[in-house]
Amino acid sequence: MLGLNKKDTRFLLIVVALTMATPILLQPFPEGSGLAQFNAGYPDLMQRFAIFGIFAIGFNILFGLTGYLSFGHAAFLGIGSYSVVWMYKLLDYNVIYGLPLAIVMSGIFALLIGYISLRRSGIYFSILTLAFAQMSFNLAYSVLTPITNGETGLQVYTNDPQVLLGATEPRSPHFFGIVMNNSSKVNVGDWVFTFNNGYYFCAVIAILAFYLSLRIFRSPFGLMLRAIKSNQQRLNYTGLNARPYTLAAFVISGMYAGLAGGLMASMDPLAGAERMQWTASGEVVLMTILGGVGTMMGPVLGAGVIKYMENIFSKINDQVLHGWFGWMPDGLEDFVIGISHFFVGKSWHLTSGLLFMIVVIFLPGGLVEGGQRIRAMFAKKRGDDDDDPKHQPKQAPHVAE
Amino acid sequence: MGILEVKGVGKRFGGLQALGDVNLSVQQNTVHAIIGPNGAGKSTLLNCFVGKLIPDTGSVMFDGQSVLGRSPHEINQMGISRVFQTPEIFSDLNVMENMMIPCFAKRDGAFRLHAFEGVENEKELVEKAEQMLIDVNMIDKRFMHAASMSRGDKRRLEMAMCLVQEPKLLLLDEPTAGMARADTNNTIDLLKEIKEKRDITMAIIEHDMHVVFSLAERITVLAQGTPLVEDTPENIKGHPKVREAYLGEAH
To answer: How many CA within 13 A on the CB side of residue A27?
Structure first.
């Protein structure tokens, strides 16, 4: 189906089902219970899961397949956001104008930056992309203030032209009248599920992005990209020119980043230069490595875990901790809270840092490798009377999963 | 007129004259060996054929066209495939994927953005790659991870990857260097098999005489960057100049 084989079609259908059910799956605890704290099914966060999922999927096409580590992808994120907000200012709040422009603009910039950066490989490539991204950030922050509105950030003002704006049209981002901010809440017993337009808009685009990336992974083009990572010398002596392949991968991943940036501005009609800072570029690298470099699901998982920790763990302040550990004797309570204090609230970075270290040391293939190991453990227990695995050739791991 | 014509090639590295005035002609459908003691300039010469080095003087014509100044991938597209001293394969991929890459390179050229076709749907190329694997007795290993194979199998795979492109000229750079005697004999058998099954032109750089005399039809002896003689294996064996080059001058 859709140019995929049976296994990939099943894989895609599972991803679609999970994405569609996210508002339910992320709301496992009833409202008002102590664990409701850990519910992640609110629109703002779910939108971020989908958007950063797209960002990471695109980044993985470059980093996962070719091995070229870019430290400048946040620049494209910013370019995408600015494009969309400019379309709000000039035309109207329908995102249909801004998103294609975001993809095209980031594609053009990626072509330029990629063309120059790809003259080097390895660490020099990373440094070049980092330099370009910081340049873009500084341009956006100060020099190009007429276009980017500098440190205030670009936003829509009432005296903007908005030439297509109709009298009855919504005054916030929408897609042909479907307003992104609107949600419907459904109460099932003690549970409250929020179905948000913006999330589903991002989710549908994320599924499309995932599907495209799956096709690229399975295509001859994807095979060439993996060959570049594996042995560039052999590739050259096999009659293939690595440069246009890496450039194409760079542009495609830049366009994914532009789309993600555009979606950010589609959820919240703002664009600021801080979106282009190098920390944002570093974040997508962490997401990809945490989930599993070069795997299909890994980057999405990594994006989810990091965004979950950023939003949920950082909310747990001392008051919440007192609520949890109130039953302890006073001295012990203070001690436990004193320790926990380092891992939650403002210090959530410590937890994510530890998690990242554990994953990199014990699971170099990321969370996906963890999943595969657990599955292999069960498979072994079940199939004990199978042929001795030692006497069978080792199968190459599949790039999906 | 040979398929590969080398005329007056010279290359200097600083104060070292690596190649003097090399003239060489590889004829179609022959196995041509280039031998010589260590430091004779064999590898330098080979690197001039594949675009890794550009000689200071002289010309290298392949199939009527100059190869000088072209990059390795362009020269491969002209019809020259190269086997390396240590097998160069895509070790992160499996055997079949390794085979598909040269198939695509042969059909689609140096670059094509075929991002929406499935590799497994290319029935014709898959068949071609499988047939080649059958020819080199590796079909049962087609889903094996290339990195986990023995050195002999890696060599076999590399050879198959070059052959599936149906090159007009196959260059082999010391294909048995560092191999045990048994592996060397296996490689010789493989090359002989290949030679029997198809018309192919090969140029081999080698300093193992056993390999050279069991395969070559023409031999060029290189010493200190210049060719001493070019002849058939029988004549080379007894040639006084060759003995001199290998065993040192008799004082």
So the answer is: 23
Taking the C-alpha atoms of residue A280 and residue A130, their distance in angstroms, rounded to an integer, is 11
Can you tell me the ipTM of this complex?
A: 0.91
Span B133-148, mean pLDDT?
92
Q: What is the pTM of this model?
A: 0.92
Q: What is the pLDDT of residue A383?
A: 57
What's the confidence (pLDDT) of residue B247?
Answer: 63
Does any domain span residue A202? yes
- Which range has the worst mean pLDDT, A117-131, A326-340, B120-134? A326-340
Q: How confident is the model at residue B249 (pLDDT cuts 50, 70, 90)?
A: low
Phi, psi of B66 (to 5 degrees): -75, 140
Does residue B1 carry a pLDDT above 80? no
State the Cα–Cα distance between residues A386 and B123, nearest whole angstrom.
32
The answer for residues whose C-beta is within 8 angstroms of residue B118's C-beta and 6 or more apart is A3, A4, A5, A215, A218, A219
Render B150-161 in DSSP notation, one character per residue. -HHHHHHHHHHH
Q: What is the DSSP string of A102-143?
A: HHHHHHHHHHHHHHHHTTS-HHHHHHHHHHHHHHHHHIIIII
Pair A363, A301: CB distance under 8 Å: no
Weakest-pLDDT range from A2-6, A118-122, A270-274, B157-161 = A2-6
Partner residue opposite B145 with nearest CB, options A215, A222, A394: A394
Query: Which residues does chain B have within 8 Å of residue A250's beta carbon, measured at their own beta carbons?
Result: none
Find the domain containing A54 and state its range: 6-277
Are A216 and B115 inside 8 Å of each other by CB? yes
Q: How many CB pairs under 8 A join A and B?
A: 128
Q: A396, B97: Cβ pair inside 8 Å?
A: yes
A246 in any annotated domain: yes
Interchain CB distance below 8 Å, A238 and B89: no
Q: Which of A31-40, A146-155, B187-196 has the highest mean pLDDT?
A: A146-155
Contacts of A374 (CB under 8 A, 6+ apart): none
Looking up residue A80, the CATH number of its domain turns out to be 1.10.3470
Packed helices A122-138 and A95-117: angle between N→C axes, nearest 10 degrees:
130
Residue in chain B nearest A245 by alpha carbon: B111
In a domain, A200, yes or no: yes
CB-CB under 8 Å, B115 with A237: no
Plot region of B239 (φ>0 → left; ψ -120 to 50 → alpha; else → beta):
beta
Give pLDDT tens digits for A197-244: 999 999 999 999 999 999 999 999 999 999 999 999 999 999 999 999
Q: Which of A220, A221, A234 sits opposite B88 (nearest CB)?
A: A234
Number of domains in chain A: 1
- Give tens-digit pLDDT for A312-365: 888 888 888 888 888 888 888 888 888 888 888 888 889 889 999 999 999 989
Q: B193: distance to nearest CA of chain A, Å?
A: 23
Mutate to test the interface with A, among B103, B104, B140, B173 (most CBs of A within 10 A): B104
Does A313 fall in a domain? no
Across the interface, whether the CB atoms of B73 and A239 are under 8 A apart is answered yes
Q: Determine contact, residues B77/B110, Cβ cutoff 8 Å.
A: yes
Q: Give residue B251's pLDDT.
A: 43
Number of neighbours of residue B129 by Cβ within 10 angstroms: 25
Three-state SS at A218: helix
Task: Please give, rounded to a whole number of angstroms, the shortest distance from the CA of A216 to a CA of chain B.
Answer: 5
